[in-house]
Amino acid sequence: MRVLPVVLIVVSTLLAGVGSLATPRTAAAAGPTVVYFPVTGHHVADSFLSTWRRLGGLATFGYPLTEAMTDPDTGLTVQYFERERFEYHPENAGTEWEVQFALLGSWLAKGRAEPAFVPIHADPPPADSPSRSYFTPTGHYLAYGFKSYWEKQGGLRIFGYPISEELSEVNVDTGQTYTVQYFERARFEYHPEYAGTRSEVLLGRLGAQRVARLGLDTAPAPRKEGVPDYDESLWAPPPPRSAHGIRCPQHWCFRRRIDSWQHLGWDRGWHGAIMTTMDFQICFLPIFTRYNFFEITVMGLLLIKQLKPDW
Predict the structure, then answer these.
(1) Residue 244 within a domain
(2) How far is CA 96 from CA 44, 48, 50, 93, 101, in A?
(3) How many structural domains are present in the chain?
(4) pLDDT tens track for 116-125
(5) Could you give the angle at the alpha carbon of 159 between the alpha carbons of 154 and 163, nearest 5°?
(6) Is the separation of the CB atoms in 214 and 72 below 8 Å?
(7) What pTM was estimated for this model as a whole?
(8) What is the DSSP string of 152-214?
(9) 205-255 residue pLDDT tens
(10) Can you give the residue range of the structural domain that contains 272?
């Protein structure tokens, strides 16, 4: 095995000179800009689609209930989902605020005078703790499981400020009574039957309630030609491949005794024979078993000349 040190030195030299050639590059998967949801029979297109995927998808917003439309009151392009209404703001194009969310929680809670909706005026405001926070702009607390969910799933950007304390309320879809709390853009529901899972806190279908109240048309739309069904795998990047189109194996190990530098095919040129054999199997330290340019380059060097087995 006296040639091994030489091989490693040559590898490091090549990487310094042609690293960009040897490095595998995983192409970013652009994916479609419009998809169809057969469950409800509606399309979602960018910029609504990219925002929907980036900020929570099905778990946060639910399925689309309508096509994109022009809101008669604001003139904005909007689209209703089970739990939210998306609004396109062209004046903010290219920014985080290009797509914003309607204050459906505020709309649904408007006029409610139960004690839970009365602001609590605290002066001075109490200090926050890991389990409880007070929000001065609306005068309400957020605590425990609801606080944890709010912080982890989007916070102010997605849900807005709390506009009530916790209270018991009947879910209009199921007829069951749950502990809930209202926010400017959402209603949180505590589901003890799902304790310990992400579904322990679920979001109310405020978009569906708003659509029903307005009497909007939710009939399925004919699929547009060439539009695929929604599937998150549409945006999955292709599996990484080496610079020469060869899938790099996870483990390589010595199985041949190399007697001279000539056996490596140095005099035959590197590129013409690089895919002609898989005679050598090489094992490196764990760092080199990763799919990176070190592994690919070494594999390329050893797939140069096919040698007859001598074991």
Answers:
(1) yes
(2) 18, 12, 11, 8, 12
(3) 1
(4) 999 999 888 8
(5) 140
(6) no
(7) 0.69
(8) HTTHHHHH-SB-S--EEEE-TTT--EEEEEEBSS-EEEE-GGGTTSGGGEEE--HHHHHHHHH
(9) 999 999 999 999 999 999 999 999 999 999 988 776 544 444 444 443 333
(10) 4-28+240-302
